[in-house]
């Protein structure tokens, strides 16, 4: 395949990606990962800072002129999943795997650094290797550590096995959903299984809630707005012949619209309390805000698309085929400054497996596409800012 990237740059990206893949680290534990990135940057002669927010890295590249700075971001963490790919460079850490492709993101940003060093961009560029995306708070910590100081626009992307390598998925508007979670405790009255009238069965209450809460989606949310409530855990009871006095449910609600998000945040406690009252029980509801929805605004999305069209045929640049309610903590950066987030087609040969599963893999040609797009978008956005005079 013509990757339109120097062979040696591509080979170094593949080698780094495989090295990271062999040695995955969980959120906030990316110490070796940080060292491996640092070694690669040192080999390029690129000055950088390590230890930001603990395990983050930042490198500032000069542009041809001083001016507004463009940031490019990769994430570095892996997941608590046992790898089942059988790849020769499979994870050597039991129960930990790069099952979301962040090894790919990390090495394509190193590749982009190489391209940017070879031919300086119009304005300064900041490269950010961020920890703990999967934990949902790595981006926030990097922002607190100053990652966005002096930055005007930020761009990033994610591998996607639903699209072939070479395709660039640039979407206006919502790209990812919000990721709020909830914990609801229903308190009834423990009792003998044969005497329900002298008890309040928390399992019955919780069961009603699990089915009733779906009406919040089907009857209270505009059908044109993607939204989901999932109860992922339900714990109750101690014995077959004892009525449970307490049931604890944990779950998540996802949406792409701030109004729907706010509505669900008020609907969950309302429904929990109503169901509890109906059954003489009590409900305690705790909501934990997650990442906001990731929304691509029109201006930066245009720049992202222009960069994609500069490196790929028009037929290979397309919007997301379906709404996505997965979360992405890049959304925290877009709460602060403008930017855009795309997806890179990364379908591997043969049968492919979903992200966050033990069989997940990417087509390594995506490393070349990602590096070229990151390099290109820094140039397109830099030129745009200079023309705007901001
Ligand atoms: Zn993930
Ligand atoms: Zn991811």
Write the layout of secondary structure elements.
Layout: H1 7-22, H2 31-43, E1 49-52, E2 56-61, E3 69-75, H3 102-118, E4 125-130, H4 138-144, E5 151-160, E6 168-169, E7 173-176, E8 180-187, E9 191-192, H5 202-212, H6 214-220, E10 227-236, E11 242-243, E12 246-255, H7 258-278, E13 282-288, E14 294-296, H8 298-311, E15 317-318, H9 331-336, E16 338-345, H10 365-388
Parallel strand pairs: 3-4, 3-5, 5-16, 6-15
Antiparallel strand pairs: 1-2, 2-4, 6-16, 7-14, 8-12, 8-13, 9-11, 10-12
Helix pairs in contact: 1-3, 3-10, 5-7, 8-10
This protein binds zinc ion (2 copies).
Q: How would you characterize the overall build of this protein?
A:
It is elongated and about 80 Å long. It folds into 2 domains: about 5-175 and about 295-390, 3-Layer(aba) Sandwich (Aminopeptidase); about 180-290, Alpha-Beta Plaits. The longest helix has 24 residues, at about 365-390. The strands form 4 sheets. The chain has an 8-stranded mixed beta sheet, sandwiched between helices. A 4-stranded antiparallel beta sheet has the order 10-12-8-13, with helices on one face. Strands 7-14 form a two-stranded antiparallel sheet. α1 runs antiparallel to α3 (about 100-120), α5 packs antiparallel against α7 and α8 crosses α10. It has about 400 residues and is α/β, with parallel strands linked by helices. The chain has helices at about 5-20, 30-45, 100-120, 140-145, 200-210, 215-220, 260-280, 300-310, 330-335, 365-390; strands at about 50, 55-60, 70-75, 125-130, 150-160, 170, 175, 180-185, 190, 225-235, 240-245, 245-255, 280-290, 295, 315-320, 340-345. Helix content is about 35%, strand content about 25%. The protein binds zinc ion (2 copies).
